[in-house]
Amino acid sequence: MYLRCKITLLFFMAMAEENITQNSWFKRVEMPAYRQFLILIGMVCVGFLLASVLSFIIITSTSQVNLSNIAAGKNLSRPLMIWLLIIQDIFLFALPAFLFAKIVSIRNDYFYFKKTSSINLWLIALLIAFAAMPASDFFSQINEWIPISKHLQSIFKAAEQQYNSQAIAIIDVKSLGGFIISILIIALLPAIVEELVFRGSLQQVLLKWTEKAFPAILITAIIFSAVHLSYYGFLPRVLLGVVLGYVYYYGKNIWLNMFVHFINNASVVTFLYISSRSKPIDPKMMDSASAPFYMQIIGILVLIAALYSFSKNAKHQTNKL
């Protein structure tokens, strides 16, 4: 009887030890892709609610703000709008991404922060960033050629003008110091946090789910563009999302993505800063800044060649390791 009890006890101890090994913090078991997707979406939604509540509290506590104009973004001071942007970037993108990685990741470096890349990859990434600009203008033209009703056209154009007006209200191009702050808030911070969520988190989940690169990259790019709520900027941002997707897929270095994304964002701020030297900036300037058609075609060809070269160099670097 004693021997039987001892054998039974040893059996359950062995089972418990196996269960701990497989399911505890000592050895993380990777979740199914659909569950990771739901967790990520849930965290982003919670982050959106927290950002909205905190933003509303800050806005309503500011005495000079007219509540009837909050939705339109009017009567908001530039410092207040900057703080609202920072809150949005932190709660909507940064926190959900890091918490998501903490929950689902079974490897130490989920976002590939520690991955090093050769100088060749960085230079090609720079070329990709610059080539994507005129290429995006081509897709912007296609976006405008898509037939829609005049009613929708007026709604979308009004929304675009409102977005441009708010962006220009935040961007300070009157001084070099203001330009640097604008670069940090408009270009650098969004590039960091958006890459963490879209390429660093969502694309990895979709890649695991679909087991194919192109669908995962394209779906991520479409969602990335849709989140910006810009009809006339939809296709250009899809292109940018696809480019960033392939940079992350081949480069396996989130810093490369942040770099390309930053260059793209900073180009707009820099254009407005340079343009303001000769005349006051106008919201329509952001729409009129389009490369000539021949430059758009050259940009597309250079972009394709640069992405191909990037993939080859990235594979060569991986093989050397």
Can you walk me through this structure?
There is one protein chain. By secondary structure, this protein is mainly alpha-helical. The chain has a domain at 110-320. Helices cover 77% and strands 0% of the residues. Helix 2 (33-60) packs antiparallel against helix 3 (78-104). The radius of gyration is 24 Å and the shape is globular. Residues 1-26 have low confidence and may be disordered.
What is the secondary structure topology, with strand pairs?
Layout: H1 2-23, H2 33-60, H3 78-104, H4 119-145, H5 150-170, H6 176-210, H7 213-227, H8 234-251, H9 254-275, H10 285-288, H11 293-320
Helix pairs in contact: 2-3, 2-6, 3-6, 4-8, 4-9, 4-11, 6-7, 6-9, 7-8, 8-9, 8-11
Mean pLDDT: 85
Number of H- or I-type helical stretches: 11
**Which overall shape is indicated by the principal axes computed on the Cα atoms?**
globular
Gyration radius, rounded: 24 Å
Largest sheet: none
Q: What is the chain-wise order of helices and strands? A: HHHHHHHHHHH
